[in-house]
Amino acid sequence: MFTRSRYRLRLRSRTLELGERTLIMGILNVTPDSFHDGGRYPDAQSAVERALELEEAGADILDIGGESTRPGADPISADEEIARVLPVLDGLQGKLRIPISLDTQKAIVAEAGLKAGVEIINDVSGLRADPGLADLVKSRGAALVLMHMRGSPRSMHKGPFARNVMRDIAQGLRASIAMARRAGIPKSKLLLDPGIGFGKNYRQNFEVVARLPELARLGYPLVAGVSRKAFIGWALGGKGQVWPVEKRQWGTAAGVTAAILNGAHMVRVHDVSEMWQVARIADSVLSAASRA
User: Fold this and answer.
1) For the whole model, what pTM was predicted?
2) Residues 95, 268, 280, 291: which is the catalytic one?
3) Which of 108, 188, 224, 288 is paired with 279 by a 20 to 30 Å CA distance?
4) Catalytic: which of 4, 21, 106, 229?
């Protein structure tokens, strides 16, 4: 069984140990159109309450997003994105004890978030959308998740898909790492996300989960986001049917388990309390294997 490397992620408020156990990143989308929870938290107060629920359920990090990156999603302006996330960040001041990650591709949005207490920027474009984001992250001492995405949210499922998905991901992540390091961001503040569901076909997403150990060789902690995604619905549906997103919890549990056993240090999920249990069992299996 794969042995997961250990890292320390240095944030402004604390240092997170990665690899001893899997960390849970709880998803909070304050968007009207995200594929699973879009529109569920239409105002800042309901979003703040949800954030506190995620913390209570076992989240180690809260990941807030103000712009949908589902397949086919249209981009929104920085002003609109800030208007969605900033009231929530302000409302969490002094209430949330876990660190906050902001899911954004825009430096101007990231800057607003960092001023409001965000400690991690989660960039689904891997610095391709806004190269200025790297300099901002460096100047603010924030951590950065670099994700691989083929194309953009609007185009990523229109193809063509990569012939060799693992080579495509590795090349893309190496390019993102190079941009981050040129900006002076320390290695201890970087995480990599292979972008499961972002510009890969259904079969390729399963291949990525199975071959995560190959990406671990890049030498950075890995983040995996499989939660309720379409490739799970495709596998469960059969005969051309796609299992509904609201019924993909158990499929997600299997995907999270596989990702952890293959080296993920952090899993990004909607269902925090359930996936907290899944992660604890998967971690126990990893621990037993290391002692065998």
Assistant:
1) 0.94
2) 268
3) 188
4) 229
| Residue type present at position 81 | E
Q: How many CA atoms lie within 13 A of 253 on its CB side?
A: 12
Q: What are 149-206's pLDDT values in tens digits?
A: 987 776 666 778 999 999 999 999 999 999 999 999 999 999 999 999 999 999 999 9
Residue range 72-109, pLDDT digits in tens = 678 899 999 999 999 999 999 999 999 999 999 999 99
Q: Are the C-beta atoms of 109 and 81 separated by less than 8 Å? A: yes
- Give burial (CB, 10 Å; 0-12/13-18/19+) of 108: middle
Query: In one letter, which amino acid is 57?
Result: A
- The answer to whether residue 200 is catalytic is no
Residue 268: active-site member? yes
* Pure H helices in 93-164: 107-115, 132-140
261-277 per-position pLDDT tens digit:
999 999 999 999 999 99
DSSP labels, 152-165? -TTTTTSSPPPSSH
Rounded Cα distance, 192 and 190, in Å: 7
Q: By the 8 A CB rule, do 279 and 41 touch? A: no
Q: What is the DSSP letter of 17?
A: E
Could you list the beta-strand ranges (E) of the chain.
Answer: 7-10, 15-18, 23-29, 61-65, 100-103, 120-123, 143-147, 190-193, 223-224, 266-269
State mean pLDDT over 125-146: 97
Instruction: For tokens 């972008």, name the residue.
Output: 195
**284 vs 155 pLDDT, higher one:** 284
